[in-house]
Specification:
Order of helices and strands: HHHHEEEEEHEEHHHEEEHHEE
CATH topology of the largest domain: Lambda Exonuclease, Chain A
Structural class: alpha+beta
Strand content: 5-15%
Number of helices: 10
Radius of gyration: 31 Å
CATH architecture of the largest domain: Alpha-Beta Complex
Number of strands: 12
Distance between the termini: 62 Å
Number of domains: 2
Length: 333
């Protein structure tokens, strides 16, 4: 069955249209990795899932068990892994794959290379996409609280606690219900300017068939908008380059320029030196053979080799001038 065909989409629908907790932040536009438009295309089988995402998720699965066990040890609690998906008691499409349960409620295990967005240990301050996942899980399970043991930067262990928020839950269910309706009616969600959506269009339409289309009035308006935006961007970029050039001229040889709330750094990096050592070694071997064939005096050969080695290194050394990066930063007063 061909990906993206009506038969493929019908088969996907036969398997059931549903949303899990990892879909929740995508639906509300809080995922740093995927747009709602991309999720729509994946759910209907119009494109395959991104392999990069699968690789990232596989590391999360590998580290899930040791992080969960550390949580159980620190808290002194019994945790259990559920044997099946959790389902909302009323909304058949709302599912959740829960990492673990403990005596209080849900345990959602997280690993992150960065501590950005993560608050103090014991708080409820977690990144927005994680918070939405937990809201979804608590809505499905009806549990009063979720604990989020997190391994941050792969070296720091923290535990967060979120209580069920019925108001936030209602808002999320409303947004997810609208997305489910998009899937059922095959009506795409709102367009956005994310790289995720652009990449999805490139993945869906990988090649052309040589045909020609004539734009409808609505499509022609989109073309005009695109041309207008590109013209504006081009003008803005030209203006930016002009102003950068003027600031560079103001700075001259200065390394830094201090303005009102802004600082400009224009420092030249050190020159880079690259020696082609394989070429030096090959040349040195040839030189040894030639000198030994031409002279029987070991001291003379050694002196010549020492001198010629420096010449060889110099011959195969390239010095690249260091760049002078131009950077503007805000100065917090």
């Amino acid at each position: 069955m061909t990906l993206g065909t009506p038969a493929y989409r019908r088969a996907n629908k036969d398997r059931g249209i549903w949303l899990g907790s990892s879909d929740a932040p995508i639906v509300v536009g809080l995922s740093p990795y995927k747009s709602a438009m991309t999720l729509y295309h994946e759910k209907l089988g119009l494109v395959d899932k991104d392999e990069t995402e699968r690789a990232v998720m596989s590391w999360g699965h590998i580290l899930e068990e040791p992080v969960a066990q550390e949580y159980a040890k620190v808290k002194g609690r019994h945790i259990r892994r559920p044997s099946r998906l959790s389902k909302h008691p009323r909304l058949e499409w709302m599912l959740a794959s829960i990492d673990r349960f403990d005596e209080e409620g849900v345990v959602e295990v997280k690993t992150s290379m960065s501590t950005e967005g993560w608050g103090e240990d014991g708080s409820a301050e977690v990144p927005a996409d994680v918070a939405v996942q937990v809201i979804h899980q608590l809505a499905v399970t009806r549990k009063p609280v979720a604990h989020i043991p997190a391994l941050l930067g792969y070296r720091e262990f923290r535990i967060y606690r979120m209580e069920r928020d019925l108001s936030a839950e209602a808002d999320l269910i409303e947004a997810e219900t609208e997305f489910i309706e998009c899937l059922r009616t095959e009506t795409p969600p709102a367009w956005d300017g994310s790289e995720s959506t652009a990449a999805t269009m490139r993945r869906r339409w990988r090649s052309d068939n040589g045909t020609e289309k004539v734009a409808t009035p609505e499509q022609d308006a989109i073309l005009s908008d695109l041309q207008e935006v590109r013209a504006v961007r081009s003008g803005v970029e030209d203006r930016e380059r002009e102003l950068e050039s003027r600031v560079m001229d103001i700075m001259g040889e200065a390394s830094r320029l201090l303005g009102s709330g802004l600082s400009v750094s224009w420092k030249r990096n050190k020159d880079s030196v690259k020696v082609e050592w394989p070429l030096v070694a090959a040349g040195y071997r040839r030189l040894i053979e030639e000198l030994r064939a031409a002279s029987t005096d070991p001291d003379a050969v050694a002196t010549l080799l020492s001198t010629d080695l420096e010449a060889l290194v110099s011959l195969y050394t390239t010095v690249s001038a260091g760049a002078r990066p131009f950077r503007i930063t805000e100065v917090k007063g």
